[in-house]
Amino acid sequence: AAGVIQSPRHLIKEKRETATLKCYPIPRHDTVYWYQQGPGQDPQFLISFYEKMQSDKGSIPDRFSAQQFSDYHSELNMSSLELGDSALYFCASSSQGSHYEQYFGPGTRLTVT
Amino acid sequence: AQKITQTQPGMFVQEKEAVTLDCTYDTSDPSYGLFWYKQPSSGEMIFLIYQGSYDQQNATEGRYSLNFQKARKSANLVISASQLGDSAMYFCAMREGGGGATNKLIFGTGTLLAVQP
Question: Do the Cβ atoms of B14 and B31 come closer than 8 Å?
Fold first, then answer.
């Protein structure tokens, strides 16, 4: 079965640089979520999109932005990167027909040096 | 206030034995969903099982079952016949509301399970 695809899987950036993470949800899933998981921590919700519209917002820094495109893929844009942004970034997708069970992608491991 | 509580930071279990991972939750919303995820050392987050607040029966998925006690607000994960590959971090998570725009998951702090041969 098709799963959530994230790219890149690993990313190394320097402080103050920008990064773009991409997510391709499971086909026919209508909702995409972004989570951030710091080292040794549980995932924290950042933002979500339903049918290409922002549906909820969590603890996402103002330096971050995200959008969902017409083909339902989503991108998380991160600017002025800080050392504390180093984390595992997950994208998840769900659909109404499956009780909104969220299926996670493999994650993008971002390291800021 | 902590919405999802996992009180066991780490647990050991012998191979082929059953193990119960504890999870309690707090919500005033009558409609909610409870999830368990497995995160191996490789980092991916694997969906295991889901329980809706209105589900009459406890959820089961293969060797995984969810012991849902609504009055006690607990949703413990039971893994039967543990295997070495079950060694991982396990997260309990909750979605408040029955679905729709507010579907974000709130996670517990996780339980690190080690299966011993």
Answer: no
What does the pLDDT read at residue A97? Answer: 65
Tokens 């729709």 identify what position? B100
pLDDT tens-digit readout, A64-113:
999 999 999 999 999 999 999 999 999 999 887 666 789 999 999 999 99
What is each CA distance from A22 to A2, A19, A51, A60, B15, in whole angstroms? Answer: 16, 10, 17, 16, 39
Contacts A–B by Cβ distance under 8 A = 67
- Is residue B6 scored above 80 in pLDDT? yes
Among A88, A91, A102, smallest CA distance to A40 is for: A88
d(CA B5, CA A44) in angstroms, rounded, equals: 15
Which residue from A112, A58, A62, A61 is spatially nearest to A87, judged by alpha carbons? A112
Measured CA to CA, the distance from residue B45 to residue A41 in angstroms comes to 13
What sign for the dihedral angle of Cα A42, A54, B49, B47? negative
Question: Which site among A31, A45, A46, A100 would you substitute to test the B interface, given the most B Cβ atoms closer than 10 Å to its Cβ?
Answer: A100
Nearest CA in chain A to B47: A103
Identify which of A35, A58, A101 has the shortest CB distance to residue B47. Answer: A101
